[in-house]
Description:
mainly alpha, Serine Threonine Protein Phosphatase 5, Tetratricopeptide repeat
Amino acid sequence: MNRDSRIPPSFAPTPAVADLVSWPARWICLLIFASTLAAYWPALNGTFIWDDSGHVTRADLRPLAGLGRIWFEIGATQQYYPLTHSAFWLEHQLWGDAPLGYHLLNVLLHATAACLFGVILRRLAVPGAWLAALMFALHPVCVESVAWISEQKNTLSTVLYLGAALAYLRFAAHRRPARYALATALFVLALLTKTVTATLPAALMVVFWWQRGRLEWRRDVAPLLPWFVIGVAAGFFTTWVEHTFVIRTRAAAFSLSAVERGLIAGRVVWFYLGKLLWPANLAFIYPRWTIAATAAWQYLFPLAALAALGALWWWRRHRRGPLAAALFFGGTLFPVLGFLNIFPFLYSFVADHFQYLACLGIFTAVGAGLADMGARPSLRTVRVAAAALLLAFGMLTWRQSGIYRDVFVLYETTIARNPACWMAHNNLGIALARAGRTEEAIAHFKQSLQIHPGNAEAENNLGDELTKLGRPGEALPHLQRALQLQPNLDQGYVNLGLALMALGRPNEGLAAFTTASRQNPRDPKAHYNLGVALALQGRVGEAISHFERAVRLKPDYAEAELNWGLGLTLANRFPEAVPHFERSLQLKSDSAAAFHTYGRALADHGRYEDAIVQYRKALQIDPNFAPAHLDLAVVLQRVGRPEEAQRHYLESQRLGRPGY
């Protein structure tokens, strides 16, 4: 019996689809890869944005031991998606911090998912299989998942999800244990990449109901029970991790009643469907709706959703496909409908990347509908319209992927489309501060606070920038307010400590740094600043241990290496200090102050010629660095080179630093 003879007549391909499926799959997949690459070309030049630094493997996780931490240390990564972070770990071994590699791989994964989607629909004899696959490949609502490096968890998990689905369909046809084992392994890998894939067994049951109009316990349900158990366990575990490591500090923001959550769910479904059918005004962060159980109009969304579902249930006697597509769409969206708390709900109840997997159901229905229409002699123009639609999708995707070029374009575009987005103002402020555009950064932090006065991050960031500008007195109220709003904001304690130290209140600064290091023992900045505060109080031994801890957590922490060396020097352990000085200079070879500091340590231990080398390197970096001129003059005098010493001494005087 051949494969097609097992398909009921009502599921056989229409004549329009027959033309498409007659193409070799490899040529259609080649078309998918080429068109996807062309549509996402602007994204390939993109840099890292927002939380990409939390996904592209941190320095302390890059050694081989870090791979073990990714799998066995909960909290070592932002989310416990060990396969996702293992993929990032491997990618970092291959191309380091070059964004191009990550972007290109994400595009290729998306194209691979589109091909697998087409293969599955073709196996199920769904009309318009390859049309649906091309729509998925080119639709602009997918841009957020493909152009944003952090969302590789979406593209990779979808490849594994579809691979597991295809393997299970092959098992369902022949019931071979090896195929079941392969399908189960792929499903588990998908869960370890992103937990939303836990919806796969339910999706497969929808497919089987669509095929035969009924479900059989032994044939359809029993083999999937282990998958349901694994999926539910993974879902509960991910929820626990999210609450324990992320949401616990913002519990008040998620205090929604059951009625409010139902209102959100109804609106979310229509929002996503609308963006699929009319992808206009796509945004990185959409406005966060104000949900009010007393607003009668808000009940129209869930009521309309229930009415539509009821109509499709009634229509199932004629065609089961539309109901199956709706069940897949709504069921796959369930984790983000509002019934569960997820961190991005702080900013918005919707995001394009939330429907990356769910949209496959809608593309299936639209593709089948267009293929059916195109099969009729009087509607041959539908084929032309479908081609035009794909072209339009590709152009919109090309334009949308361009906004992911860098953080400035991303957040400026987001603010233009969503002016009340306090998160975008805050994040743009962070980017501007890192670029040295402090006054502009402060303006955006203030704007963020004007929109959302309870924004602890903006208060903290504003206070930090004011401290850096030498205005710690102005910074202090903002930093204190940040910690009132979010007592577990460990970085807030670090910034508070810096402001207090700048105000000449070292004991209070030390207490703030101590709190920061206790709240988040993995924060290298907390340990570094605590070490500096301890050293200033003469507690050098304690300081050394914190500098060491900071370097262990962040192996490329040049300042911590330098101060570790200084601490060891003050503790009369200079031979141990030398490797730390040299490591610091390797990491930050453009720091005149670091070379000067190492030079002074060498000079204090009688290594005058070595000190001269370090002072000269400092002056190569900054010829106007007066302390280096003065100390070089002193050492040159000691080694019997008075004329050269005199020149450097006079230069230090000319620069306004005659001595200290």
